[in-house]
Amino acid sequence: MIKKKIRSFVRSKSWLGIILPVGLILIWQLASNLELINASLLPSPARIWRSLVKQAESGKLAVNILVSLRRVLVGYALGASLGIVIGIITGLSKTATKIVSVLFELIRPIPIIAWVPVLILWTGIGETSKIIVIMIGTFWTVYLNTSDGIRNVDRKYVEVSKIFLKSKKIEITKVMFPAALPGIFTGLRVGVGSAWISVIGAELIAASAGLGFMISYYREMAQPSTMFAGVLVVGVIGFLINVILRRVEKRVLKWNTVK
Amino acid sequence: MGTIVQIKNVNKKFTIDGETKEILNDINFDVREGEFVSIVGSSGCGKSTLLKMIAGLESTIEGEILINDNAVNGPALECKMAFQEARLLPWRNVYKNIGFGLDKSVPKSERDELIKKYINMVGLNGFENALPKQLSGGMQQRVSIARALISNPNILLLDEPFGALDALTRINMQREILKIWKQENKTMILVTHDIEEAVYLSNKVVILSERPGRIKKILNIDLAYPKIRGSKDFAYYTKEIYKEFFEDSEHEIDYAI
Fold first, then answer.
1. Which pLDDT value is given to residue B257?
2. From the list A157, A159, A255, which residue is nearest B57 (CB)?
3. What is the pLDDT, as a whole number, of residue B188?
4. Chain B hits for A167, Cβ within 8 Å
5. Does B103 touch chain A (CB under 8 A)?
6. What is the DSSP string of B189-202?
7. With pLDDT > 70 as the criterion, what percentage of chain B qualifies?
8. Contact check, Cβ <8 Å, B91/A255
9. Would the CB atoms of A163 and B81 count as touching at under 8 Å?
10. What is the ipTM of this complex?
11. SS3 state at B122
């Protein structure tokens, strides 16, 4: 079983992707050993790793990760749900699209980070402001992809629903929604990326816990290796979230990829 | 056998980019209960549109279409359709696609038995969990036909269901559809551009002209089932239909016996 997996991994050429990051770390470590890099600007990988282990052992790292993840989970769930619901409504109704069009096109270009000071002003420095920032970050991609997905559902499937005298509710939930699901999933996957970016951004500006807070705190404490450890964890978790979502997508959309 | 479908003075126009195009012109014919009627015509003559109008899928109708003396103004319970491209829902397996044909009035306890019966009828045992993409074109059409039949409609509309199939599969499917027609006592209306298929399957062939589609001729096929494709009488009817298409050209000679 494991042998088989290894063999298919080797054959799939997925391992080619590992060469660059590993090579880069080796060169970086080597350059640090030769003192070609100023360690107060960019500590060596080994130094960052030691700081990371120290953070992990003290339990602070787990706390920061959990705080950030919890915020993302709540904000993402709210933003994605709202994006799907409003996306379905505007996807179904041209009138609804027209009603929201100007407002949405005015708000959408505002960078997520610009919302942070505004939301702190309105809701204070607590959880609410961060969760709303993540909601906004998630909402747009999910909304746009859902709306487009529903609008572009092949009329042929809708005719099938009509000929079998299905109710409007069945037509939307059992025909149009699954037909639009590949598009919606693209939105969900891109959306989780912007949710993660949003939480770190919000925490960098104002927070007392979380990975973004960890990065800005250790910059102020002049401990660059711990700061970089935080950056590294942000990257790795973002990567893992993407992997998980792809797995879910592959399972849910098996019908779309099967040969 | 009484009349089940009446088509009276039906016209159809489409407006494309502000230009009005006439699709069907003054269509009149009846379909009797239990009859197998084919509508033939070259592509673009409006034959599929006519079928969709009978199915209640076209919103504006000039003239009148009656099913059991009731005017069609939307899809009806007694009338189901199998489409040209099968149109299975790609996210549902065979079992669930066929189940989609069941009306909500059918109680849960009866659904499973009914679905299994129709899977059996179209010979797809063992493929219950297969997704549409995993099936051949012929199998997809079987699912589509089973989905249409499971709601037990009196009338089955077939929109070139065998058009995309290879010759051997097509002949097999034609046999099976005749078997179902006999067994289940349905009224069938088939749209096709395959003249042999029309003669082989139907009691009556409605021949449409090129766009705008008008009725050129309605031909009764007085042959006993099962029809023999190579027979002289079979060839006679095929030729009669070909004549309608090529009356002004020399191509007629190609099909002379």
1. 47
2. A159
3. 94
4. 104
5. yes
6. EEEES-HHHHHHH-
7. 95
8. yes
9. yes
10. 0.84
11. coil
Return d(Cα A119, Cα A127) in angstroms, integer. Answer: 11
What is the pLDDT of chain B when averaged over all its residues?
A: 88
Closest residue to A178, CB basis, from B81, B83, B91 = B91
**A157 to B89: CB separation less than 8 angstroms, yes or no:** yes
In angstroms, the separation between the Cα of residue A87 and the nearest Cα of chain B is: 21
> A153 — contact with chain B (CB < 8 Å)?
no
The mean pLDDT value for B123-143 works out to 91
Structural domains of chain A in order of their starting residue, each with its CATH number:
61-257 (1.10.3720.10)
Strands B79-82 and B62-67: unpaired
Determine the pLDDT at residue B207.
92
* Burial classification of residue B105, based on how many CB atoms lie within 10 Å of its CB (0-12 exposed, 13-18 middle, 19 or more buried): exposed
pLDDT of residue A172: 95
Residue B227 DSSP class = P
Q: Contact A160/B103, CB-based, under 8 Å?
A: no
Range with the lowest mean pLDDT among B25-29, B83-87, B139-143, B243-247?
A: B243-247
Residue B136, chain A, CB below 8 Å: the answer is: no
Query: Cα–Cα distances in Å, from A55 out to A50, A207, A216?
Result: 9, 18, 15
Inform me whether the pLDDT recorded for B246 exceeds 80. no
In sequence order, which residues have a C-beta less than 8 Å from that of residue B251 and are 6 or more positions away?
none
B91, B96, B131: best to mutate for the A interface, most A CBs within 10 A: B91
**pLDDT < 50 regions, chain A:** none
Given this model, what pLDDT does residue A154 score? 93
User: Is the predicted pLDDT of residue B249 greater than 70, yes or no?
Assistant: no
Residue A163 to residue B133, Cβ atoms within 8 A: no
pLDDT in tens, A238-255: 899 989 999 999 988 988
Residue B103 is nearest to which of A165, A256, A258, comparing CB atoms?
A: A165
Minimum distance, in Å, between the CA of residue B21 and any CA atom of chain A: 22
pLDDT class of B251 with cuts at 50, 70, 90: low
- A256/B103 touch (CB, cutoff 8 Å), yes or no: no
Euclidean distance between CA atoms A66 and B126, whole angstroms: 48
Chain A nearest CA to B200, separation (Å): 27
Residue B203 has pLDDT above 90, yes or no: yes
- Interface mutation vs chain B, best among A163, A170, A173, A253, most B CBs within 10 Å: A163
In order of their start, the domains of chain B are 1-73+191-257 (3.40.50.300)
Cα nearest neighbour of A176 on chain B: B89
B78-109 per-position pLDDT tens digit = 899 998 888 999 999 999 999 999 988 889 89
